[in-house]
Amino acid sequence: MKVINAKLRHKDGLYTVSYQQGTFDSIELQTGLLNEAVSADVIDAKQQLLMAPLIDPHIHLDAVLTAGEPEWNMSGTLFEGIERWGQRKETITFEDTKQRAKKTVDMLTAHGIQHVRTHVDVTDPALTALHAMLEVKEEIKDKVNLQIVAFPQEGIESYKNGHGLMEEAVKLGADVVGGIPHFEYTREKGVSSVHFLMDLAEKYDRLVDVHCDEIDDPASRFLEVLADEARVRGMGERVTASHTTAMGSYDNAYCYKLFRLLKRSKINFISCPTESIHLQGRFDTYPKRRGLTRVAEIDRAGMNISFAQDSIRDPWYPVGNGNIIRILDAGLHICHMLGYEDLQRCLDFVSDNSAKTLCLGDQYGIEVGRPASFIIMNAQNDYDVVANQAKAVLSVRNGAVIMRRQEEQVEIFA
Ligand code: FE2
């Protein structure tokens, strides 16, 4: 099998990319445009961009497609979202969770996403959503590689048997240990929740991804606790701080000191720009904060940060369609990252950087010997993807086509 006339990121010319038995076996520069007939074995990329699959490193598949059930989040705050979710949780069933999650996975697949990290609420004595998601993970494995985070939506220390439920979730098969220290009842409980979750991850050899300081409160400083725990234990590359929106409210003197620790810790960051601009800044009049973490500054400091969707039509965020390029577009705008250099490499924030966060290693990337998983975007390069709001037109996973989009036809008559 081969793809001809492919543009590759950051490379001039056109390439032929070949693969056999689900693995790339050659990537060769062409001398010019090829005119081979398309067949079952030959795909013509038509001078469009062939790249590694897109990734959504932070979503809540157990909550998707529930907006307005039973009530809408009228204030638009994160805290009312947690209340509305608490109501919806009472009617969650195993089948309901599976059906919504699988429908959403198809929405993600339609946009060229092949790797997903989903948080699943484990503050439920029956762990219904987790059981459902473990089945979903198996059933969708030909489309998407799913990492499941044991996520304590209502707290670890502040929820009855929080410790027990987290450990049970990990034993059942959660890949990643989560947390929500800023939501615990006291600062002390927030700190002890971080110690607990890091111990749990170390004990069971799991990754870590914490909802950390998802609040505009400049006094919310659990990131330093998480980063230092990661540094001391040497686990940084396996640890992620999601959101860290309070960093958008920290003063520069504290942030300067904090960055020294963050760099040494080697932890990863995830920002959910559409979610955060919607949920944060809700207690401000004017000036009104954007409510995002310092994405550009984290990136410029050489640390790893990526963008994610977080929600699709749930109690926290009422819209969304699975298109991570929409999130990238919004994130670059909100974070003042539409400069020339950012635009040349902006797809890193929804591909390579996310792969590092998910610890995909040599299972990801357009290189000989790696799995033949790739997408073709209807664009030429990173800049073109954002400028034209490009879409994935083909998605191939381990050598098999899993999604094809018919190209749009627009006719203008004047
Ligand atoms: Fe989240």
From TrEMBL:
<feature type="domain" description="Amidohydrolase 3">
    <location>
        <begin position="41"/>
        <end position="402"/>
    </location>
</feature>
<dbReference type="InterPro" id="IPR032466">
    <property type="entry name" value="Metal_Hydrolase"/>
</dbReference>
<protein>
    <submittedName>
        <fullName>Cytosine deaminase</fullName>
        <ecNumber>3.5.4.1</ecNumber>
    </submittedName>
</protein>
<dbReference type="InterPro" id="IPR013108">
    <property type="entry name" value="Amidohydro_3"/>
</dbReference>
<dbReference type="InterPro" id="IPR052349">
    <property type="entry name" value="Metallo-hydrolase_Enzymes"/>
</dbReference>
<dbReference type="GO" id="GO:0046872">
    <property type="term" value="F:metal ion binding"/>
</dbReference>
<dbReference type="GO" id="GO:0004131">
    <property type="term" value="F:cytosine deaminase activity"/>
</dbReference>
<keyword id="KW-0479">Metal-binding</keyword>
<dbReference type="Pfam" id="PF07969">
    <property type="entry name" value="Amidohydro_3"/>
</dbReference>
<keyword id="KW-0378">Hydrolase</keyword>
<dbReference type="InterPro" id="IPR011059">
    <property type="entry name" value="Metal-dep_hydrolase_composite"/>
</dbReference>
<dbReference type="GO" id="GO:0006209">
    <property type="term" value="P:cytosine catabolic process"/>
</dbReference>
<dbReference type="GO" id="GO:0035888">
    <property type="term" value="F:isoguanine deaminase activity"/>
</dbReference>
